[in-house]
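Saturday, quiet lab. Running sequence design on the structure tokens for the scaffold JK sent over.
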């Protein structure tokens, strides 16, 4: 009898204990780690997605990663996890199976991200579901919040002085180049303008010659009429007739001279306008380090910089342009599919074959300049 009572008590205790475990079982936790950190805009850092089963048998985890003020760079499924739906930066939803159903702490995803701009960046999960052996498991979700600061480049004093000196030297070189350029003759423009002037002069001469010939024919016709109809019949005094003929000749010659002067002045004005408008261009060359660089001729605008020229032509050519702002100016990180660091090459730029010592957004160009952006190995 006592044995039966003892067994009944033990069975009751086991049942009560099991029910209490079911009722008071802890929820599993899906966490973003680290939960917080400090980073700078443009700097890449690593994040882990971790599941803590808290003694629950977890077989499947699904959800979606959300990036706020963060740029996803890469998502990797950790070892020991089987991806049924693999997340990517373009499509960050996932369904992950855990062989043998984990009952411990397990890393399921590794994420690389970078801050977009100064402020707070967040990585959080939505549409989460944690499934055990045939049943849903209660869970908590913990996201990550990160302090993103702007890039602050501290330039050593001696380097800053060197940069300022180089900028002053570059400005002096530009001024000297402008003076020498203003004193040089653009033979191609002169040749084109000279050809245009010559053609206009020929046309003007032909036109004036036609007018003169017509006037001479009219004069001869008048003389013939006077001789045949008037002088031979003694209708008027011959001296008076000669005076009239002389006056007509003077009027004809004067008219021809006036017309010739007007045509010449108009021609000079047109040529001057042509000379002022010809040559307002700048040449841009984008050399990817391959055989055929892209060359384009763009309209020159006063105050235009080398970066302005590149940005305008990149829009016309539908080229992707990636840049980064620093205190000393804008630096080109990528043009098209060529990004700094590939094969040890970087984007450098040249003005008329010479490399300036200031950033492209501070380099003011002139009409007729040849601006080259080359993807090559740096000598620095």
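Result came back. Writing it out in full:
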């Amino acid at each position: 009898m006592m044995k039966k009572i003892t067994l009944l008590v033990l069975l009751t205790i086991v049942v009560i204990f099991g029910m209490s475990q079911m009722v008071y079982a802890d929820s599993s936790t899906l966490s973003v780690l680290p939960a917080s950190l400090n980073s700078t805009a443009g700097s890449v850092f690593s994040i882990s997605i971790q599941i803590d089963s808290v003694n629950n048998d977890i077989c499947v985890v699904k959800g979606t990663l959300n990036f706020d003020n963060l740029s996803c760079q890469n998502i990797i499924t950790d070892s020991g996890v089987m991806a049924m739906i693999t997340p990517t930066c373009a499509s960050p939803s996932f369904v992950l199976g855990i062989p043998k159903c984990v009952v411990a702490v397990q890393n399921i995803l590794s994420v690389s991200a970078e801050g977009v701009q100064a402020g707070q960046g967040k990585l959080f999960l939505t549409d989460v579901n944690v499934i055990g052996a045939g049943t849903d498991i209660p869970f908590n979700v913990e996201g990550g919040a990160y302090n993103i600061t702007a890039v602050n480049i501290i330039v050593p004093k001696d380097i800053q002085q060197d940069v300022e000196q180089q900028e002053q030297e570059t400005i002096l070189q530009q001024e000297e180049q402008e003076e020498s350029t203003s004193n040089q003759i653009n033979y191609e423009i002169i040749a084109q303008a000279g050809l245009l002037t010559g053609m206009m002069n020929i046309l003007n001469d032909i036109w004036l010659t036609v007018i003169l010939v017509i006037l001479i024919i009219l004069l001869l016709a008048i003389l013939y009429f006077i001789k045949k109809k008037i002088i031979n019949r003694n209708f008027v005094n011959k001296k008076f007739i000669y005076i009239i003929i002389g006056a007509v000749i003077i009027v004809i010659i004067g008219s021809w001279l006036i017309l010739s002067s007007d045509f010449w002045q108009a021609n000079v004005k047109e040529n001057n306008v042509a000379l002022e408008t010809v040559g307002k261009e700048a040449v841009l060359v984008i050399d990817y380090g391959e055989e055929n660089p892209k060359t384009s001729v763009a309209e020159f605008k006063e105050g235009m910089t080398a970066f302005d020229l590149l940005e305008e032509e990149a829009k016309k050519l539908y080229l992707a342009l990636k840049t980064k702002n620093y205190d000393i100016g804008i630096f080109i990180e990528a043009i098209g599919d060529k990004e700094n660091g590939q094969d040890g090459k970087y984007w450098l730029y040249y003005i008329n074959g010479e490399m300036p010592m200031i950033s492209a957004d501070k380099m003011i160009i002139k009409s007729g300049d040849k601006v080259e952006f080359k993807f090559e190995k740096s000598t620095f």
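Notes for JK: Residues 14-25, 193-197, 266-278 have pLDDT under 50 and may be disordered. The first helix runs from residue 2 to 23. Ask whether to fix the surface positions before the next round.
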